[in-house]
Amino acid sequence: MWRELWTLAVRAACGPRRLCTFQRSRVPALNSGTTIFALSSGQGRCGIAVIRTSGPASGYALGILTAPRDLPPARKASLRLLSDPRSGEPLDRALVLWFPGPQSFTGEDCVEFHVHGGPAVVSGVLQALGSVPGLRPAEAGEFTRRAFAHGKLNLTEVEGLADLIHAETEAQRRQALRQLDGELGHLCRGWAETLTKALAHVEAYIDFGEDDNLEEGVLEQVDSEVRALEVALQTHLGDARRGQRLRSGAHVVVTGPPNAGKSSLVNLLSRKPVSIVSPEPGTTRDVLETPVDLAGFPVLLSDTAGLREGIGPVEQEGVRRAQERLEQADLILAMLDACDLASPSSRNFLDMVVAPTGAQNPSKSSQRLLLVLNKSDLLPSGSPSLIPDLPPYLLLSCLTGEGLDSLLEMLRKELVAVCGDPSTGPPLLTRARHQHHLQGCLNALSHYKESKDLALAAEALRVARGHLTRLTGGGGTEEILDIIFQDFCVGK
Amino acid sequence: SLGQMSCNPSFGGIGKGHLMREVDALDGLCSRICDQSGIHYKVLNRRKGPAVWGLRAQIDRKLYKQNMQKEILNTPLLTVQEGAVEDLILTEPEPAHPGKCRARGVVLADGSAIYAESVILTTGTFLRGMVVIGLEMHPAGRLGDQPSIGLAQTLEKLGFAVGRLKTGTPPRIAKDSINFSILNKQTPDNPSLPFSFLNETVWIKPEDQLPCYLTHTNPRVDEIVLENLHLNSHVKETTRGPRYCPSIESKVLRFPNRIHQVWLEPEGMDSDLIYPQGLSVTLPAELQEKMITCIRGLEKAKMIQPGYGVQYDYLDPRHISPSLETHLVQRLFLAGQINGTTGYEEAAAQGVIAGINASLRVSRKPPFVLSRTEGYIGVLIDDLTTLGTSEPYRMFTSRVEFRLSLRPDNADSRLTFRGYKEAGCVSQQRYERASWMKSSLEEGISVLKSIEFSSSKWKKLIPQAPISTSRSLPVSALDVLKYEEVDMELLAQAVPDPLRKYTQCRELADRLKIEATYESVLVFQLQQIEEVQRDEALQLPHDLDYLSVKDVSLSHEVREKLHLIRPRTIGAASRIPGVTPAAIVNLLRFVKTTQQSRAAVDELPKTDQYLRDTDRLQEREL
C-alpha cells in the first residue's frame, strides 16, 4: 500500500489520457506534470468547504467550470457560478481564487473553490473536476509534497510532512478497507482481476507469442472479456445510485469483551433501540450499524460482538466481523465492565486492543481510542479497583446515564480531531475518486478496441488496469508475470 | 575461448533484441559482430507493433568467435591474457566511498598477479559450477571446462550473499541424420534487418541464409521423461531454474498432455550440428537419444553430444550499485550471470555498463547510470539492484513501464549522445550518424505536421487510407501517416514536394512511420517519464551510513533495507519493497539538511542543488 500510493502516482495511469481539445487562453502545458485536486477543508458540519487544485491544468479547469467567463484576476476573491462541464448544470455560486505559479502554496498554478458546505455541492464540484482532462484526485500528502519539491516549505514545515503522509495513508487505507467491504468493493475486485488476467494474456502474447502452447484465440478471448467489462462499467456508471452507497461519516466502533454493555451504549448514543440488550453474554453476534449525529458530526456507529474465544461458530464469525470492523474504525470506543477489570477477558482486551492503539504516538496514528468503564452504578466505592497500567478512562453508567455528558464532551473533542483532517472523512472525495477511475478505465478500454498495434492495445490495458488497481491495491509487474507463467508453457 | 557462445547458437529475441540495440547504441560489440556472423536473420513479433519487435538471428558459432577475436585482438591499447582467476588482490579502501576494501587486481591459477585500477568479474556459470547429466554430477563451468572455486570462496568470505541457480542446454544432433523433408521449414526475412545502427545491411544475402525447421514433441516423449524421473537429479533439485526457458522435463511436469515445439537450428554455415531449441534435458545420455528418436523427423537422428544441466553460484545483485560496482569492494564490478541474469543479451547489457563505469571510476569521473525511463538496460539493472532476483532474470518487454518510448528503433537517440558525452564510449562515426538521424527525424516530423489538407482532399490523394471525411478541421500529414495502411512512400507519392527526400533513406522513412504511430500516446508517456525523473534527480549521498545515521527518523527495518541496497536516488529508494512514503520524505529532508550544512561549510550557494537539478531535468528535451 505504501509503495503503491507513492509510486503509482508516477507509474500507473495518471488521469484520463485525452488530449485537451478545449482551446482557451490557458491550455495546460503538456510536459509539466499532472494536476491534482482535493477537498482541503475538514469534514463535519461546516458552512464553507474549500476545494483546491494544483498543477498546470488548474487555470484550464477553472475556466471550464466557470465558463463562459474569463479567468478572474490573480489572487483576488471573485464570485462565480460553477457548472458541470459535461451537463452544463449549475453546481454552486462560489468564491474562486486563482493563484498562478510560482506565487502559490505549492509553487504551481493553483485554484481554490470556496463552495457551500453541503455534501451534494462538494461532491458535484469534485466530480466535475474529475471529469476535466488532465486532472486527477490527489494522493496522500501530495499537495505538501509538491510544495516541498518547489521549495515552498522550510525545513521545520517539512518535518510534519512525513507524519502527515503517514496519517493520510493510514486514513486512506482504512477508507479503502471500508469501500472494499461490500458490493462495490466486490465488483471492483472482480473487474480488476478480469483486467489483470486480460493484460497478462496480451503481455504473454507479446513476449511469448512466437512460442508454442499459446493457444490461438488468446486475443479473441481477451477481446470478449474487455467487451463484457466495458458493458459492466457503463451500466455501473450510468446509474450512480446503483450498487452500494459509500457509507459516510466518521466510523465509530464500540468494542469490548462480552456483556460489557456495548449495545446499551449504542442505544444510548443513538437514542433508539438499535441493538437487543440482555444480561446474557454474546447477545450481539453481527455488526449493527446506525448513522447518528454526535455533537454535530455525522457518525456511523457500529455495535459489534463481544471479543472472546472458545465459542460456537456463529459467534466466532461475529467476533471475526467485529475485528474486521475495528480495523476500519476512525474512533474506537473500548468498553469494559468497571467491576470486572481483573477478569482474564478484561485483561486480555486491555492487552490486545487498548494497549496497541493507545501506545502509538497519537500524532502518528490517526486511529483514536476512548476507554469507557461501564456499570459505575455497581461500583461499591464509586471508583474502580486499582489495576496497574490502566490507561486514562471515563466512567459511565448506561443504566443511570451518569457520566454521559463527559463522554459526549470527549467524543466531540475526538471527532473534531478525526473530522478536522480532510482526508479521513471523505466519502465525497471517495466517490469522486471512484467515478474518476472507473471513467478513466472505461476510456482506456475504448482505446484498446481502437488500437491495431498490439503494443498500443496493451498500453491501453495497462492504463485501464492502473485505474482499477488504484481503487483496489496491487498491480505490480510480477503479478502479471506470475499469471503468464501459470497459464502458459512458454520457453523456447 | 574468447567469443565462445556457450549455449544457444542465436542472439536477440523479444526484449533481448531491444537490449542488443541499446548495447549497440553505446558502441558495444555484440550487435556489430552478429551482423557479420548471422546465418538466419528474422524479426519476431512483426505483426504486433514496432515497439515490441524482436530482432533475432541464428549465429554461426565459428564465425562469431573469429570475428569477435579479430575485433578484440585488434583493439588499440588492449592487452588480452587468458588464464583462470583464482583470487582477488585487495587493499585499503579509498576514503569517501562505501566499501571495506578496494580491488587492486587478480591472482591467476599459476600464482601470477595482474594489477589493475578496476576489476570486472564476469564469471558466467563457472562459480562453483556443477554439470549434471542423469545422476552424474561433476564440477565444471561448461562441459569440459574447469569451474572456479577459489574465487567463489573469496567472494563469500568478503560477505557477499551467495545463491544458487540452474540452467540447461539441449543435446546436439548430427545434421545429416535428420529427415528435414517432412518438417516445416522457416525461411529468414527478406530483406534482413541488421542489429547495428551502423549497418544498412548484414554480411549475407537472404537467399544464402540457412533455414530452420520445426518439429514437435509427442506423448512418447512425456512417457520417457516421466518413467525416468528417478534418474534425473537436476530436475529434483530445489535450485531455482528459469520459469520461461524450462527444460523438457519441467514442461512435461507442469503442462502434461501437450505437445511442445522443437526448433531445429543450424549451428553454423559449415557445421554438421543441429541445436534442438526447446529440448533442454538432463536425462542420462542413452535415454536422451531414445527420447530424440521418437520425435518426428528425428527417427534416425544421431546424438553427437548429450544435453546437460549446470548449477552455479550467483551473488545477490542488491550488493551492487546501478554502475555495477559492488558496495562491499571498491572498484570491483560484476556483470552477467554472477548477478543472477541469464542470456547473452542481458550479459552484454551489463558488460557495456560495467566496462564504461570501471573506466570512469579510474579517471575519477561520475558513474554512468541509465534509468528505467531511458532504456531496457536501465530497467534490467534497476530491477536487479533494488529488487534482487531468485530465479535467472530474463528481459521481457512486459517488465518495462515505458515500452512505447523505449523501442528498438530509437535506442540511438536515447543512448548514443549520453554515451558520447558522458562516457566517451561512442565512436565519432556513430555519433555523427545518430546526430544526423535525430535532426532528420525532428525536421521530418515538423514538416509532416506542417502539411495540412482537408480530410476530403486526403481521401482523394490516398484512397487506401480509411480517412473519415466527417472531420471539419484540417488533417496533417503526420495524422495521415498514423493509419496502418499509410507509409512514407505512399505519402511522398501524394505530396512529393517536400516529402520525397524523406524516403531516400529507408531507415529514416521507417522511423518516421513508427514515430507517427505512437505520437499521441507518447505525449502522455513523456509526462509520466518526467514525474519519475524528478525523483531520479534527487540523489542520496553514496557514503551515507544508514544503520548509524541519527538525524533521520527511520525504522530499523527500513534502515536495514537501505543499508543492503544503497539506492542511489530517492526514486530507487521508493521502489524498494517495504520503504514507506513517510521514510522517503524523511530521507528527502535529511538530504536537504545535509546539503545545506555542506554548502555552508564550502561557502557555496548550492542550497537547492537538487531542486535545480530537477528543474534542469524538466527543461531537458527528450
TrEMBL record, chain A:
CC per GO annotation: mitochondrion; transferase complex
Gene (UniProt): GTPBP3
Species the sequence originates in: Otolemur garnettii
Needed co-factor(s): K(+)
Domain of life: Eukaryota
Keywords for the protein's UniProt record, in alphabetical order: GTP-binding, Hydrolase, Mitochondrion, Nucleotide-binding, Transit peptide, tRNA processing
Domain TrmE-type G positions: 249-416
Subcellular location, record wording: Mitochondrion
Reaction(s) the record says it catalyses: GTP + H2O = GDP + phosphate + H(+)
GO biological process terms on file: mitochondrial tRNA wobble uridine modification; tRNA methylation
Molecular-function annotations in GO: GTP binding; GTPase activity; tRNA 5-taurinomethyluridine synthase activity
Physiological role: GTPase component of the GTPBP3-MTO1 complex that catalyzes the 5-taurinomethyluridine (taum(5)U) modification at the 34th wobble position (U34) of mitochondrial tRNAs (mt-tRNAs), which plays a role in mt-tRNA decoding and mitochondrial translation. Taum(5)U formation on mammalian mt-tRNA requires the presence of both GTPBP3-mediated GTPase activity and MTO1 catalytic activity.
UniProt-recorded name of the protein: 5-taurinomethyluridine-[tRNA] synthase subunit GTPB3, mitochondrial
PANTHER family xrefs: TRNA MODIFICATION GTPASE GTPBP3 (PTHR42714), TRNA MODIFICATION GTPASE GTPBP3, MITOCHONDRIAL (PTHR42714:SF2)
Family note: Belongs to the TRAFAC class TrmE-Era-EngA-EngB-Septin-like GTPase superfamily. TrmE GTPase family.
Complexes and interactors: Homodimer; forms a dimer in the presence of potassium. Interacts with MTO1; forms the GTPBP3-MTO1 complex composed of homodimers of GTPBP3 and MTO1.
UniProtKB/TrEMBL annotation, chain B:
GO cellular component, as recorded: cytosol; mitochondrion
Family: Belongs to the MnmG family.
Domain tRNA uridine 5-carboxymethylaminomethyl modification enzyme C-terminal subdomain residue range list: 516-589
The protein's name: 5-taurinomethyluridine-[tRNA] synthase subunit MTO1, mitochondrial
Organism annotation: Otolemur garnettii
Task performed by this protein: Component of the GTPBP3-MTO1 complex that catalyzes the 5-taurinomethyluridine (taum(5)U) modification at the 34th wobble position (U34) of mitochondrial tRNAs (mt-tRNAs), which plays a role in mt-tRNA decoding and mitochondrial translation. Taum(5)U formation on mammalian mt-tRNA requires the presence of both GTPBP3-mediated GTPase activity and MTO1 catalytic activity.
One Pfam family it belongs to: GIDA
Record's catalysed reaction(s): 5,10-methylenetetrahydrofolate + uridine(34) in tRNA + taurine + GTP + A + H2O = 5-taurinomethyluridine(34) in tRNA + 7,8-dihydrofolate + GDP + AH2 + phosphate + H(+)
Subunit structure: Homodimer; forms a dimer in the presence of potassium. Interacts with GTPBP3; forms the GTPBP3-MTO1 complex composed of homodimers of GTPBP3 and MTO1.
Highest taxon of source: Eukaryota
An annotated Gene Ontology molecular function: flavin adenine dinucleotide binding
Keyword tags: FAD, Flavoprotein
Record InterPro entries: FAD/NAD-bd_sf, GIDA_C_N, MnmG, MnmG-rel, MnmG-rel_CS, MnmG_C, MnmG_C_subdom, MnmG_C_subdom_sf
Entry-linked SUPFAM superfamilies: FAD/NAD(P)-binding domain
